[in-house]
Amino acid sequence: MPALPRLGYGAANIGNLFREVTDDQAWAILDAAWESGIRYYDTAPHYGLGLSERRLGAFLRTKPRDEFVLSTKAGRLLRPNPDDDGGLDLANDFHVPTTVRREWDFSADGIRASLDESLERLGLDRVDILYLHDPERHDLQLALREGFPALEQLRGDGAVAAIGIGSMVADALAAAVEQADLDVIMIAGRYTLLEQPAADAVLPACHDRGTGVVAASVFNSGLLAKEEPSRDDRYEYGRMPDALWDRLQRLLAVCRAHGVALPAAAVQFPLRDPAVRSVVVGGSRPEQLRRNAELMEVGIPAGPWEDLAAEGLIR
After folding, report:
1. Full-model pTM
2. What pLDDT, on a 0 to 100 scale, did the predictor assign at position 42?
3. Which of 9, 34, 48, 129 is paired with 25 by a 20 to 30 Å CA distance?
4. Measured distance CA(52)–CA(15) in Å, rounded
């Protein structure tokens, strides 16, 4: 298992997530990440139907290969789309043409093909970590029977250094940790300052098995990236539930009382659990990457954490 830096960059945005960015803008984002000291990069074929991998690979090919850690994902193959009507992949929130489509494949041949095709798009000879991406959205039991053993075979063959699962569903993450031989898991949005359902079963399983954790989507769709969130801000795919808004107000009150910026607490919180090796953040503008790197270095004393725990807001 490669050593992971505390902060990584999740490259969905350079796959045109939510809005189009140009090649030059994508390069500027990645350049800001690198100049800010970020040395872990995560991508996936799903992100922009391969666009994220192509752009990230083009950038990383200009850097020494032993100076960064790279992960991508498997489970969805990209294949020519016979139903392409010249539109965009907006159903999946990516502003890219639908000339190819995603096809689920957890077979050994499918997992191997996914890795080979990712390497071709990246233009690199290896990735360090390969995650099975959102397997519960297709068939979790099939993933447990076929997908994870296929990943284990790739690791055994030396094709990748480490394997895992990337998901935002706590039950799927826990089942994968308990039933597969994984090195690391990526928890998306389920172990954050605002919400910690992964603390119930996922993190205890990781502690028992010695499985590492990468915490992603730690800003909860951007809610925690602002020092003063708005009631109208997006939460995942819709409006924030009232109970969650009330919880957010309580979090803000504790942070204000200690003079701690909410985004700094959000980006550092997951690392308080010993299983968490890295926090992966997104960003669609260079200044966001620079700001996230600064937030990770903000000194936060014990007091805020103690008060958040006393309020029942964190475990």
Report:
1. 0.94
2. 98
3. 129
4. 4
Report whether pLDDT(223) > 90.
Answer: no
47 is catalytic: yes
| 17 burial level (CB within 10 Å; 0-12, 13-18, 19+) | buried
Quick: pLDDT tens for 50-98: 999 999 999 999 999 999 999 999 999 999 999 999 999 999 999 999 9
pLDDT for residue 235 is more than 80: no
254 within a domain of the structure (yes/no): no
Per the structure, the count of domains in the chain is 1
104 found inside a domain: yes
Per-residue pLDDT at 205: 97
Residue 251: inside a domain: no
Range of the domain at 30: 7-243+261-302
* Contacts for 284 with CB less than 8 Å, ≥ 6 apart: 13, 14, 17, 18, 19, 21, 29
